[in-house]
Design brief:
Belongs to the RGP family. Probable UDP-L-arabinose mutase involved in the biosynthesis of cell wall non-cellulosic polysaccharides. The chain is of the alpha/beta class and 397 residues long. It has helices at 2-8, 14-22, 26-34, 66-76, 106-113, 127-133, 159-167, 218-223, 256-259, 281-296, 315-338, 348-362, 368-396; strands spanning 40-41, 54-60, 80-85, 100-104, 138-142, 146-148, 156-157, 203-212, 236-238, 251-255, 299-309. Helices cover 39% and strands 15% of the residues. Helix 12 packs antiparallel against helix 13 (368-396). The protein starts with a helix and ends with a helix.
Length: 397
């Protein structure tokens, strides 16, 4: 077999390995697994993306990032990395060498955002500070308790490349394609799909999925403590217009200029903790960004890439903290389903201001958490505009 002769001759380069993989032969995959050959599955990008157009943003809730960064080295080493330390984390961060990165902590947050608004960036919300200070076209956000996933053949998945592939190909929110993403390799539009809509629209947000620990709420995870997600679905789809989704900042990417201000750290639960089950800021953020995308005619994709999410936290202990949020969702979802933004709102910032005013007017009297969320949204828009304008002036000097 040519494969075996190539191995014996010591001529198995990355390029040659890809040629063997492309044959799709089971014998090749079996030998790769037997010999423990490390392969990173990188999708073919539809457009040429420069390395300096991408920021990787990581919110650090734990001090030792050594294993995390080393596992992600094959994907992160090409790009600039922004690490934002949770303002409540006292220990010094441990970060291995060999990365192009900037690290931000509480003093930086206070200097840029002001101590009065630093509460916006507590806990998992610290990642939003990275969104704020980034000046790159694309931002990819990964949590510090997640590792690269492997596809069913055992190959490492390049989550960065897949996110960029999602963002640089059109989305189709106005007519569902039953073959999922028609722009993916080997796919196309189905019979009956209107030709007038086949050009698609800009994809502004890519929502990846994860293996191992699924994104259940605390009640579900407590009841299904041993359940793990092992199902890898090789597909990407556009979320239809007017359909809401509860995105998770664990594994997302977005075009910063297109929707950055809509990713807002606003909804804070009373007694919010440091486990994913104890927070709802990203769910609220996802609802905001989706209705903004629908209003502005932008697309949102979900599916690939997968990451591997490690176990963390106690769902039963978290249940008391999250239960408030579970109840609030029964009021939140009907509200967002009914929101219609005025035609005069033509920018992301204007859209978020309109949503904030509606939250204050229609939900503010139900629970103080909504009034606080509305104010946080307005503060966020003001901060985004202030930091953006000051950075533009600095770049021009």
């Amino acid at each position: 077999m040519i494969w075996q002769r190539t191995l014996r001759a010591g001529k198995l380069t990355e390029r040659v390995l890809k040629l063997f993989i492309d044959t799709g032969k089971d014998e090749v995959f079996s030998l790769i697994q037997t010999l423990n050959i490390q392969v990173t599955l990188t999708p073919v990008l539809p457009t040429k993306i420069k390395d300096d157009e991408v920021d990787i943003v990581i919110g650090a809730l734990r001090s030792d990032l050594t294993t995390f960064m080393n596992e992600w080295r094959p994907m992160f080493s090409r790009f600039h990395v922004i690490i934002v330390k949770d303002p409540d984390l006292k220990e010094e961060l441990k970060i291995p060498e060999g990365f192009n990165l900037d690290v931000y902590g509480k003093p930086d947050i206070d200097q840029v955002a002001g101590s009065s608004t630093s509460i916006l960036f507590s806990g998992y919300s610290c990642r939003y500070f990275g969104y704020l200070v980034s000046r790159k076209k694309y931002i990819i956000s990964v949590d510090d308790d997640c590792l690269p996933a492997r596809d069913p053949k055992g190959f490492l998945v390049d989550a960065v490349a897949q996110h960029i592939s999602n963002l640089t190909s059109p989305a189709t929110p106005f007519f569902f394609n039953t073959l999922y993403d028609p722009y993916a390799e080997g796919a196309d539009f189905v019979r009956g799909y209107p030709f007038s809509l086949r050009g698609g629209v800009k994809c502004a947000l890519s929502c990846g999925l994860w293996l191992n620990l699924a994104d259940h709420d605390a009640p579900t995870q407590a009841l299904k403590a041993r359940q793990r997600n092992s199902r890898y679905v090789d597909a990407v789809m556009t979320v239809p217009a007017r359909s809401l989704i509860p995105i998770s900042g664990i594994n997302i990417a977005f075009e910063r200029e297109a929707v950055g201000p809509a990713l807002v750290p606003a909804l804070k639960l009373a007694g919010e903790g440091k486990c994913r089950w104890e927070t709802m800021e990203d769910i609220w953020s996802g609802l905001c960004v989706k209705i903004v995308c629908d209003h502005l005619g932008l697309g949102v994709k979900t599916g690939l890439p997968y990451i591997w999410r490690t176990d963390r936290g106690d769902p039963i202990a978290s249940l008391k903290k999250e239960w408030e949020g579970v109840k609030l969702m029964e009021e939140v979802i009907p509200f967002f389903q009914s929101v219609r933004l005025p035609r005069e709102a033509t920018t992301v910032e204007e859209c978020i201001i309109e949503v904030a005013n509606a939250v204050k007017e229609r939900l503010g009297s139900m629970d103080p958490v909504f009034a606080r969320a509305a104010k946080a949204m307005l503060d966020w828009v003001e901060l985004w505009q202030s930091v953006g304008s000051s950075s533009s002036r600095s770049s021009a000097v």
